Structure formats: C-alpha cells, structure tokens
Amino acid sequence: MQAARGASLSPSDPDLQDQPAPRPHRPRLRCLLLFAAVAAAAYALDVVSKVLAVAFLSDRAPVHVVGDFFTLALTRNSGAAFSTATSYTAALTAIAIVAAVVVVWVARRVASPAWAVALGLLLAGVAGNLTDRLFRQPAPFQGHVVDFLSFPHWPVFNVADACINVAAALIIIQSLRGVRVNGTRTREESSRS
Q1: How many domains is the chain partitioned into structurally?
Q2: Mean of the per-residue pLDDT values of the chain
Q3: Is there a contact between 50 and 158 (Cβ–Cβ < 8 Å)?
Q4: Domain carrying residue 88
Q5: What percent of the chain has pLDDT over 70?
C-alpha cells in the first residue's frame, strides 16, 4: 500500500511540499569549503606579505636571501605580467574584476578537490593583485601592484602571481587528466556514447 501510494505522489502533492530541500552532496560541500579556505588563506598571505614588503623593503637595496639566487627587491608594476600593458592599468583592473566574478561563478559547481584548490588559488591571486590596483597609489583603479620576490632571469613577482601560476598548472593537469570542475571525467561521456 505504501509503495503504491509513494509511486503515485507528484511534486504538487502536499506530502512532498513539506519535505526539506535536498542538500548538496557532501563531497561538493567539502570542495566548496576547501575552495573558500584556500582562497582566503592565500589572499591573506598575499596581502600581509605586500604590507611587510612595503614596510621593510622601501628605499632599500635588494635583500639577498639565498645569495644571488633569491632576493627580495621591492618594485611596483602598473602593467600585467612581465610589465606589459603598463598604459592600460584601468583596463587590467576591469579585466581582473570580471575574472574574479567568473572564478566564483565556476566554483559554484566544484566537486573535485584539485579543482577546488586550483580555483581557490586563482581567486586569491586575481583578488590579491586587484586589491593593489583598487587601493594603492597613484589612484583607485590605477594602483600599481607590489612585487618583491626575485629570481635570476625572471621578472620580480609576488604571492598573488605565484598563486595564479600554480592554479594554471593545476588546471592544465586536471584538463589533461580529463577531470572537469564538477568531478566528472570526459572519458566517462565518450565511453557511454
């Protein structure tokens, strides 16, 4: 009797309307929390490291941490990576805002821990440099990004830049493995068809 009654229920039945809304899968919820934690921690590390760099490296010669291999040297970059597009700071700021919104939009579907870490690092990196562009000198939306980490034959960079590059590597690895943001594999679909 119960089975027959359950089979005849439709979404408009009063019995179903009292049911709580379905909860997201636990793995998806864990991945969302991982995404948020990685983004918050990496963003905080970037902001704090830049504040310390400005406080301790301003008007100072490069600090040699590991000989000439790794130094701390404060620079300010109005452009993109490798100091390109220095005349387009406002446009780069607008692009960063759009990028941050897109990362958050995509992260809503995250159900893979590796993708959660990648997207969290990507958001932290974009948001870290965006914060500089919005709030640092010379003006809002035209602020110069604080860079201070230096290796030989490589442009000076910051924690946000490192986050973006690690995120890019993780995204490439996940794509090559055929793992999508939602945790499914591209091979699963091709094997079904």
Answers
A1: 1
A2: 86
A3: yes
A4: 26-186
A5: 80
5 burial (CB, 10 Å; 0-12 / 13-18 / 19+) is exposed
- Note the residue count of the chain: 193
Tell me if residue 161 is catalytic: yes
Residue 155 counted as domain residue: yes
Q: Which of 15, 18, 132, 161 is catalytic?
A: 161
Residues 6+ apart with CB under 8 A from 93: 130, 133, 134, 141, 142
Q: How far apart are CA 46 and CA 126, in angstroms?
A: 11
For the chain, the distance separating the N- and C-terminal CA atoms, rounded to the nearest angstrom, is 39
Confidence (pTM): 0.81
Determine which one of 46, 59, 132, 147 is catalytic: 147
Bridge partners, 75 (sequence order) = 147
Strand order in the sheet with 63-66: 63-66, 70-77, 145-150
Task: Please tell me the distance from the alpha carbon of residue 169 to that of residue 185, in angstroms, as a whole number.
Answer: 18
